[in-house]
Structures are given as C-alpha cells and as structure tokens.
Amino acid sequence: MSDAGQLQLLRQAAVAAREHAYAPYSHFRVGAALRATDGTIFPGCNVENSSYPAGICAERGAIAAAVAAGYRTFSHVVIVTDAEHPTPPCGICRQVLVEFSSQLEIISVTTAGAETIWSLSDLLPSPFTPQSLPHL
Predict the structure, then answer these.
(1) DSSP state of 21
(2) What DSSP letter does each residue of 33-93 carry, written as one string?
(3) Looking at 59, 99, 105, 115, which residue is catalytic?
(4) Does some domain include residue 29?
(5) What is the CATH number of the domain that holds 11?
(6) What's the pTM value of the predicted model, to 2 decimals?
C-alpha cells in the first residue's frame, strides 16, 4: 500500500477513535492513531475524569496501547478534533511521544477538513530524553 494510502487509514482510525472519546466535561473529543514503523496502527481517544488531572489524552492512550502490544518505534500520529484549527499535542503528550520517536510526524486534522503537519522535534525542540538522565 502506498504511503498516502497508509496515511488515509491512519486518518480513518483517528476519526473512528474520536467517536469513542469520553469527554462529558470539556466536550472536546479527540481521536488519535499512532503508526508503528511496521505499519501497525494503534488508536486512542481522550478519557476525561471528574478529577480533571486523572484524565488521559488520546495520544497517550494510543502510546499505551502500542507499548502494551510490544511496540516501541513509531513514524506518524494523526490527531482529530472538531476545533476550528488543527490542534497540536499538549506538552505532556509531546514529552511522552518523544520518549519513543523524536522524529515523529504529527498530522492534526479537524472534522471540517483543515490540516497541519509538524515534526515532533519542531514542537519540542529541547526535549528531556533518556540521555538527559545521569548514568550511574
């Protein structure tokens, strides 16, 4: 399958994941789909909680599913929202994503069809990585 075809599947998976989002407080439903370097797709959606900090973002949900399945390297993530403008990952998600792929391509689309593409290194230019930790 062509790269364009695989990206279309990734977009469709993110759209489908958004439909399952649990966002009774913000009403801001987010779907994400993460593509492993072998092409496997892992969807995620945001899951809010009445104790707001306990919620999880769609991107971190997708990462958790991928890691639970044994995957550690990724090439793309698609994020879908109904915002007016494409939405980048929040700061916490950026940090979680960089743990696995500093060169990840992030494609954010809206339900109205607007799209923006970033590289994770552009959104998080000076990340805290395993190399930042002292080695004993």
Answers:
(1) -
(2) EEEETTS-EEEEE-B--SSGGG-B-HHHHHHHHHHHTT---EEEEEEEE-SSS--PPPHHH
(3) 59
(4) yes
(5) 3.40.140.10
(6) 0.93
Identify whether 105 is a catalytic site residue: no
Could you read off the pLDDT of 67-113 as tens digits, one per residue? 999 999 999 999 999 999 999 999 999 999 999 999 999 999 999 99
Domain count for the chain, please give it: 1
Element (H, E) at 16: helix 3-18
Q: Which residue has the tokens 């899951």?
A: 47
Q: What is the tens place of the pLDDT at every residue in 6-20?
A: 999 999 999 999 999
Cα–Cα distance list, 118 to 39, 109, 124 (Å): 19, 12, 10
Question: Residues 61, 30: contact at Cβ < 8 Å?
Answer: no
